[in-house]
Amino acid sequence: MDGVVLCEIADEVLPESPEDPTEFRFGKRRWVFKDYLIEHQEEILICIEKCQNARTRKLKFRSIRQESGSCILVLCHEQTHVRARDIEMEVGEQILPLFFKDFRGSLEFEVAQQEKEHKRPLKTYVTTKLYDALYEKHRQTINVEQERSLDLPKRFQSQLRKYQQRTVSWMLGREQQITQVPANFIVLHAIDGRSRVLKHKYCLQFYPFEEEIPKISLPPGGILADEMGLGKTVEFLAMLLMNPRPQDSYRNDYWHQRLEEFSDEVPLKRARISKKDEVFCICTKKHGKRVQCTKCHRWQHEICMTISDTSDVPHMCPSCWSELVKSGERLVESGATIIVSPNAIKMQWFEEIHKHISPSLKVLLYFGLHSSFWVSPFDLAQYDVVLTDYTILRNEIYHTTDFKSDRQMRHQQRYMRPNSPLLMVNWWRVCLDEAQMVESNTSAAAEMVRMLPAINRWAVTGTIDELPPLLEFVGRPEVCRPPDAWQTVDKAFQLNYKCEPLLELLEHSLWRTCKSKVEHELGIPPQTEVVHRLELSNVESLYYREEHLKCHEQFLAAVAKHTRHNADNSSCLASISPQLLRIILKPFLRIRQTCSVPVVFNSNVSSTDYLHPQDLLARLKSNNENECKTELRSWASSYNGLAAIYFIKNDFPQAIKYYNLLLKLANEYNEQNISQVHWLPLSTS
Ligand SMILES: [Zn+2]
Ligand SMILES: [Zn+2]
Fold first, then answer.
1. How far apart are CA 202 and CA 190, in angstroms?
2. Which ligand is in closest contact with the Cα of 321?
3. How far is the CA of 445 from the centre of ligand 2 (A)?
4. Are residues 51 and 13 in the same domain?
5. Which of 9, 19, 414, 621 reaches 20 to 30 Å from 588, CA-CA?
6. Could you say which residues of the chain have pLDDT below 70?
7. 3-class secondary structure, 291
8. Contact by Cβ (8 Å): 232, 462
9. What's the confidence (pLDDT) of residue 148?
C-alpha cells in the first residue's frame, strides 16, 4: 500500500457475530471502535463521512487485512503531491488531535483559518517587507567577528564600504562554514500506542517514522540580492578572491594519469597523413591542420579543437571525453568560477574583473559549441573565471546526451556531435547573474544551469519575483517542497500572521541590503537639481499630445481590465503583484521610450535613430497618408464587391452604377491600383 498508516481506528465485526450497539458500517463491513477511541466515536464518524463524501486525496480511511485474516480500519495518508483540499484541512484539524497525543496545532490549519477571516487578495506585493525583516534578522545574528573589517588580499584594488564588507563576510561564511538546520519534520505518537509518524512542519504531509531525523546540511552558496547599484559585482569578486579552492583538491591526478596512459600507447602524429585517415571533427570541413585523438586515433582540426601551441596535455577528442566522463563517473575538478549572465552584461563582468583585480585573473569568454569551437574540460578547468551567457547555455542544452534526437542516431554520423564540456567540469563556483532570468523553471537555460556541477552555487539578482526557482538552484529544494509547505509559510508571512517560519527558512540562503538602510554609508553627495525648459515646436507638441492621449487611454483600459475583479477596492499600486504591475504600467514604459527616442511606430526607423522635427513631420505625414490610402482601398473594394453582387443577380443597371462610382473614385483620387474591376466572362450574362 502506498502511504503511511496514521492510526488504527476500528476492528472488523465478523459476519456471524451478534449485533453490537456501538458498531458502524464502512464499506461492506461492520466495525467497532478501538477502546482508546470510544469516547471520540461521534466526531470520528463525522470525519469518516466527510472524507468519503469529499473523496479526499490525502487523508483516507481504509480497511487493511491483517496476517491473522481479520481486517482493521485505519486512517492513512496517501503519498501524493496534490494540494490538500480545504475539507481535508478541516478534517485534519479535527481528527489529528484525537489520534496524536502530542499534536499541538499546525501552521497550515492556522493559516487556512486566517485566510478565511481576512479574505485578502493574496498576491500582494510584500517583497519590501520581507527584505526589511530579513535585514533586521541578519543584523541581529551578525556576530562581532563579522563586523570587524575584512582582510582583503593585495590583489584587490578597490575599497569596500562597510555594508559591502558585511555582505562579503556573510558570503564567505556561506562558503566556508558548515551550516546545519533542523529538518522540517516533527514526530507524532499515535494514541494506539504503536504507530509513530513524521509530519511535515508546515503542511498536511506524513512520512514513515525514522528513529533519527538527520539535520539538513545547507549547501554552500546562496542568493545575493542586494539592491541595484549597491555593487553586487564588486562584492562577488571580493568573495571570489578571498575564498579560492584549495589547490590540493583539484590537481586532477586521475585525468593526467589517464591521458598519459593513452598517449603512451601510440605516439602522437601531427605530421602529414595519408588520405585514408578521414577527418572526424565537430565540423564538416575536409581540410585544415589536423590533430589526432590519443584515445580513438581519429583526426580533428586543430582550429576546431582550440589547441594552443603551449598545451602540453595530449589531445583527446570530444567523443572520448564524454565517454570517459560517463564511464569513469568522474569530473574534471576545477578551481574556476563560471559566471552566467545576460549577454548584454557579460563584457561588464570582464571589465570589472580587470578593474578590481590586479594582476588580473585568467578569464575565458566561453562562446559555446554553437560557435563551432570545442574547449576541452581540461582547458576550461585551468581558468580562474569562465564567462558565458544565457543564450549560449540555451543552445548548449542540445549538446547534452539527454537531448540527442532519434534522427541523429539513425543516420550514420558524418561529423562528431560533441557533448557540452561545461558539464564535464566540477566547478568550484557557479554564479547566475540577473538570476531572475531563470525564474521560469521550464526554459532550456534554466535546465542547463541546474545541471552545471558546482561546489558553491550563487544566484545574484536585484529583483526577485519568484523565490522557489532560485532556492532550487542554490540547492535548497526542501524549502519549497512540497509546494503546500512553501505556500503555508509564504501566506503566514503575507498575512502578517507568523513571519518567523519564512525568515528562518530564508536567513541562510538570501541576503539583501536595501539602499534605504545603508544610505549613510554610501557617501553620496547631496542631490542638486538643474532644470532646463525646452520649447516644443508645433509638430513636436502635436506628436506628444497624441502620444499622451494614447497612453492615457491604454492605461485606463489596462487598469479596468486587470483590477476589476480585485476584491480590495482600495487597492493601491503596492498591493498589486509585480507581474500585473508590469502589464498595467506598460503604456508608461512606451511613452517614456517615445520621449527619449521619438520613433513613429509602424515605420521602418530603427529604435535607435533620433528624429529631427522635420523628419518627424515627414513621418507623421506619410503615416497619415498611408492610413488614408488604406481607407480609400477598402472603400473601393466595397464598391467593387457590391457591383459584383448585382452583376451576379443580373441587376445590371445597379452593377453599372457601382462600377461607375468606383471609376469615379479612382479618377478623383488619381489612384491607379484601386480600380481592379471584376471581369466576368460575357457568356454568363
Ligand atoms: Zn573541424
Ligand atoms: Zn577520441
1. 19
2. 2
3. 28
4. yes
5. 621
6. 1-2, 119-127, 143-148, 265-277, 310, 402-413, 439-442, 564-576, 596-611, 671-685
7. strand
8. yes
9. 66
Looking at the CA of 281, name the nearest ligand.
1
Nearest to 94 by CA among 67, 125, 56: 56
648, part of any domain: yes
Spacing, Cα 52 to ligand 2 middle (Å): 63
What residues does the ion ligand 2 have nearby, CB within 5 Å? Answer: 293, 295-296, 317, 320
CA 292 to centroid of ligand 2, rounded, Å = 8
Helices marked H in 160-215: 162-176
Please indicate, yes or no, whether residues 41 and 108 belong to a single structural domain of this protein. yes
Domain end (from 118, 147, 167): 118
Domain containing 264 equals: 242-272+279-481
Residue 335 within a domain = yes
Task: Tell me which long-range contacts 251-259 makes (C-beta under 8 A, separation of at least 24).
Answer: 251/333, 252/332, 252/333, 252/378, 252/381, 254/328, 254/330, 255/330, 255/332, 255/378, 256/313, 258/324, 258/328, 259/294, 259/313, 259/314, 259/316
- Does residue 486 lie in a domain region? no
Nearest partner of 573 among 561, 581, 582, 564, judged by Cα: 581
Cα 365 to ligand 2 centroid, rounded to whole Å: 25
Q: What are the φ/ψ torsions at residue 303 (nearest 5 degrees)?
A: -70, -40
Query: Residues 266, 325: one domain?
Result: yes
ipTM over 0.95: yes
**How far is the centre of ligand 2, averaged over its atoms, from the C-alpha of 323 (Å)?**
9
CATH number of the domain at 474, please: 3.40.50
Task: Identify the DSSP state of 279.
Answer: B
What separation in Å is there between the alpha carbon of 452 and the centre of ligand 1? 26
Give 558-608 pLDDT, tens digit per residue. 888 877 655 444 555 556 677 788 888 888 888 887 776 655 454 445 555
Measured in Å, residue 278 CA sits from the centre of ligand 2 at 13
Is residue 312 domain-shared with residue 460, that is, in the same domain?
yes
pLDDT at residue number 164:
92
- Alpha carbon of 291 to ligand 1 centroid (Å): 10
User: Of the residues 87, 103, 118, which one is the last residue of a structural domain?
Assistant: 118
* Distance between Cα 284 and ligand 1 center (Å): 7
Same domain, 579 and 475: no
DSSP-derived pairing of the beta strands 206-208 and 71-77? unpaired
Structurally, how many domains does the chain consist of? 4
Residues 44, 19, single domain; the answer is yes
Verify that 457 and 545 share a domain, yes or no. Answer: no
Q: Which ligand is nearest to the CA of 324?
A: 2
Domain membership of residue 490 (yes or no) is no
CA dist., res. 366 & res. 343, Å (int): 12
